[in-house]
Write a structure and sequence with these properties.
- The chain is 45% helix and 31% strand.
- The chain has 110 residues and is α+β, with helices and mostly antiparallel strands.
- It has one domain: Ribosome hibernation promotion factor-like (Double Stranded RNA Binding Domain), CATH 3.30.160.
- β1, α1 and β2 form a beta-alpha-beta unit.
- 16% of the residues are buried.
Length: 110
């Protein structure tokens, strides 16, 4: 998946860009392969790094944000958060719909 990486208030090395791309490819893409696009925003505020992932999937935009004193730690934590959100999103659409079961429950209540 192509990741658009934006660095705010500092310059990011090519090695760090490769690391971010690898994290997204290895941790998020296997969970849900229907992503439309991905944007990673890395920002430096005083002594902290803020990493934010914006992921567009069909019908929804998922966002995760994490702050840490280390850039790689922020990236790891935000990818972990996004993986959890993607898993929930994927499971939400995989739930079976059984209208008969709902009908039977409504009869039993009367």
């Amino acid at each position: 998946m192509k990741v658009n990486i934006v660095a705010r208030h500092f310059d990011i090395s090519e090695k760090t860009r490769d690391y971010i791309q690898a994290e997204i490819d290895h941790r998020l893409e296997p969970v849900y392969d229907r992503t439309v696009n991905c944007k990673m925003i890395v920002e430096k505020v005083k002594n902290d790094y803020i990493a934010e992932v914006i992921l567009n999937v069909p019908g929804e935009t998922l966002t995760a944000k994490q702050t840490s004193d280390d850039l790689s730690k922020s990236v790891d934590l935000v990818v972990k958060k996004m993986r959890k959100q993607l898993t929930k999103h994927k499971n939400k659409w995989k739930r079976p719909v059984d209208p008969h079961k709902q009908f039977v429950e409504s009869i039993d209540e009367e």
